[in-house]
Structures are given as structure tokens and as C-alpha cells.
Amino acid sequence: MQKIIKEIKYYNCGYCTNNLKLVFKKHKREIKVFPAGVFLVKHPKEGYVLFDTGYSTEIYNLGLKGKLYNLFNPTYVKKEDQINIQLEKDGIKCSEIKYLVLTHLHPDHIGCVKYFKNAKILVSEEAFNTYKKNKIRYLIFDKLLPEWFEEKITIIEDKQLEENKNKYFSYYDLFGDKSLLLTKVNGHAKGQICSLIQDKVFLGADSSWGNSFVGKANDFKFFPRLIQSDMSDYIANDKLLKRMKKDGIKLCFSHDTYEDEVIKL
Ligand SMILES: [Zn+2]
Prior knowledge:
This protein has 265 residues and is an alpha/beta fold. The protein contains nine helices and 14 strands. It has one domain: Ribonuclease Z/Hydroxyacylglutathione hydrolase-like (Metallo-beta-lactamase, Chain A), CATH 3.60.15.10. It is 24% helix and 28% strand. The chain is globular, with a radius of gyration of 17 Å. The structure holds zinc ion (ZN).
């Protein structure tokens, strides 16, 4: 397939830590760092597309909800970790981001949405409906979102996400050139958007905790099961991820660690 997008840049925008003993059955105590990853793609005609916005220091200003989140999910973020600052350092103004894909609305993905008022902000229909219905149950801290959020977003409807089908899933071809296919991967969060880029790289958001956890969804303990929106979907999609990995597609999850900041296509 034609190489329209040449590379994906990864940004580590704060992190949280978890003890794997509390997550997986029969796992020994191991405190693991889970970075909040943001991915940037430059499309030659459409411009910059950003996937998620990582944490912001606002996570410490959310009152009781934030304190509880921090208790179960110790979070570390400094001003310079924020995506707006990191883009600036790379000579990219936030106003140059043309599209912002919010994979889902958890705090480690929406921290810096407020800096991207100029972008077309894409949210799935199901993620938006969930946000409107029950923010607390689905871990959505709307205080992190700017007041203009609802007026500015573009909803990707379910029927758009089902327009085409490949051997893995139904998808929406964002630019109509097959470079960036958006699909819905339920399980972790309702209406979570993942993307397949030129049949080579799959931006898997939180469909798995990381490459080393693909195929291990059945080993989750009770508490991590509880924070997924639908465990049976999660397990079904874990199988899909395993299949894609076997086929040589590079899986890039939001909370993996990357040795290189640039992923070549
Ligand atoms: Zn999440």
C-alpha cells in the first residue's frame, strides 16, 4: 500500500504506577510504570493528527474524585510533560493540530484538550453518549474538559465506523485514502477508537495495558476487571490483538514504553 504517512511520533505525557500483583492472578509484586502516551501523525494533505492528549497537572486539582483516582492510580505529571509544552519544544503550535482523535475520555487521555480549540475533535458516538449519561461510572472527569468541549466536537457515528470492513474489523476511512482507518474497540471503555495506519501500525489505545499483556486478559483479577467497561468484549478484542500481532502489525498502546520516539512506517 502507498506510503502516505511516513512516521508516527510518540510523546510520553506523564505516567501512573500500578502493582502488577493487584492486577494479574499469580503475579509477584512488581511496581510498573504506565506512561500516558500521545501519538502524532503528519498527513501530507490533511496536516497534523493527534491521538489523545495525555495527563495535565490539573489531575491534582479535582478534589475528592482526583484524590481517589490518585490513591488507586498514583499519578505523576509535571508541566513540562504536558503535550502542549512538548509540541512547542518541537516547534509545533497547538493551533497547527488539525485533527484530535480522542480514543476515549479517561483522565490520562483528555488532560490537555483545552489547548486544541482549533482542531477538529473526533469522539465516537458511543463514547459521547456514555459521557452524557454517566460520567462517574465510566471514570470521566469532565472538569478536565474545556467549557467549549461539547460545541466543538465532531461525533463519529456508529454507521460511519461500519462503512467498510477488512479482515479484522469494520472501519471508517478518515481521509478516504486508506492511510488512517478508525475502528471501535469496546471492552476497556465504551466506544473506544483505535486506528490502523497503512496496515502496519495499530494505535490500540487502552485495548491492552501493553504488548507484554496481549493474550493475558483472562488473567485479570477482580478489581481490574471492574474498571473495564465490558470484560467479555475486552477478552474478545484481546484475541483480535493477538491475531494482528501474529500477522506482523505493530501494536502501539497508550501505556506501553517506547525506546524510540519515532515509529517508522
Ligand atoms: Zn482508559
